[in-house]
Amino acid sequence: MHREELQTFKGWFKQYVQGFYSDDPAVQAGIRLKEEHTRRVCTAIVGIGRSLDLPPEDLHLAEAVALFHDLGRFRQYATYHTFNDRRSENHALLGVRELERAGVLAGLPEEERNLITMSIEYHNLRDLPGKLPERPALFARLIRDADKLDILQVFTGSLERKEAAPNPLLNSGLPDTPGYSPVLIRNLLQGELCNYSDMKNFNDRKLLMLSWIYDINFPWTLAEIRRNGHVEKILDSLPGTEEIRRVGERLHIFMASRSA
Ligand SMILES: [Fe+2]
């Protein structure tokens, strides 16, 4: 993808998002949250891409994927006032529909158009489909890493500020009750991703975020996670039980083995 095409997409995106700006402060906060998230995910995906020595055309393509990965979030929030896909609809598919409706990608070669829409569709799946061809797999992995990195950043930031009431935009409206669900601990100790449907409270949400470590694809992303201490910050906010200590140990062993 040429730089000029990426610039055109950025201009379109800006206008599109401004169309959702609202006088209602609650709606506006949600729209701005995702606008800022998109900006940071664009920066992160270029960071990962550079660490892999991708050529400039692929860096532009990757940035376009990041720019559009959460496009569906804006109409989702305006329509349903929630970012919870289970209470509204799949924001990835909604975003692809919005792109198609506006004909934004119409001028691109078919390969690039498909790579962008597939990467959007795959960005929020628990697992990537097996046996993806090399390029779709690469771009899907790039956006999944960049997205997770920023969500971890925002999440640990809110934990550090020890926000009196956890931000409902970030905790899926889960109650901040004591304890956690054993199934998520089991997943973490077995090196598996946790399932959203198993989350019962805010501690479960924290455990699910920790399990993302097992799904990070690139050394650059893992290095950023380590540099920012995301794992330690989340662990510190969980109950100081033996189980949590073992989860921490397991995660640290995994991260060390991946960076070696
Ligand atoms: Fe998303």
Automatic annotation (TrEMBL):
UniProt domain HD: residue ranges: 34-152
Domain of life: Bacteria
InterPro entries documented for this protein: HD/PDEase_dom, HD_domain
Pfam family, any one: HD
Originating organism: Desulfofundulus thermobenzoicus
Protein name: HD domain-containing protein
Family annotation (CDD domains): HDc
Coiled-coil spans in chain: none
